[in-house]
User: What shape does this take?
Amino acid sequence: MKDLINKLNKHFESRVRLGVMSVLMVNDWVDFSTLKEALDITDGNLASHIKALEGVRYIEVKKQFLGRKPNTSYRATLEGRTAFEDHLKALEKLINTTP
Assistant: This one.
C-alpha cells in the first residue's frame, strides 16, 4: 500500500493543479481567463499554481497580443501529460486496491 502512495505525483496534490492539468489534457491551448473561470479561482491563486507547474515543465506558456490586448495561453507539455497520466494510473490503482 505504501508503494501506491509513493507513486502519486506531489505536484498534483493541490486541487487547483489537478484542475489545471485536467483542463489542459483535453484542450490544446487554454487562456488564463478561461482557466480562471473554469476553476472559479482568483488571479493570484491561479498564477501561483501555473508558475509551479511551469517550473517543473508540465505546462508551456504562450504570450501574444490579440489586437492591443495581451493574451497568455497554456498547454500541457509531453512531460506534463505523461506525469499526469501516471498520476491518474496511480490513483486508480490506489482506489482499486483492497487492504
Remarks:
- The radius of gyration is 15 Å.
